[in-house]
Hints:
The protein is mainly α. It is built from 9 helices and no strands. The chain has one domain.
Amino acid sequence: MLQGIKYILIKLKLFQPSERDIQTWISTKKVKRIEYVLEHGNYKTRKLAAEALGKTGYASSIPILLRTINDNVHNVSIAALNALESIGSDDKLGTTIIKKRFDWVKDKREKDAKLEASKGKKYKIYRWERASKKSFDRVKEQLKRPMR
């Protein structure tokens, strides 16, 4: 009874489900509720819902997980990819999408690692390297003149 009331509050967008609620839905096999939270929840609950759908293993949730791949939050899209991989899509399109997306995630992680490695480096750019040749010559001419 209490779970039904919580679900109504979630549909009215007055309440966000907790991890315990999602675990309860997994154990009672309420996949439609998890799919609803995956589409309409905040980023934390969407991530939990994607992981939960991966644990349940229902092939009927593959289309929703494929739509979730393009989520703005990278953690949610990665959780959806992991769920798709654990469910195991037999069609050629699903396996191709999963493979290409994992290549994208790998490239993004490598790029972030390079950025983090070069974060502490300081580059010395001297002022005369940035100045144009004309202004550099003008400064040299001014230095040759006697001071007043």
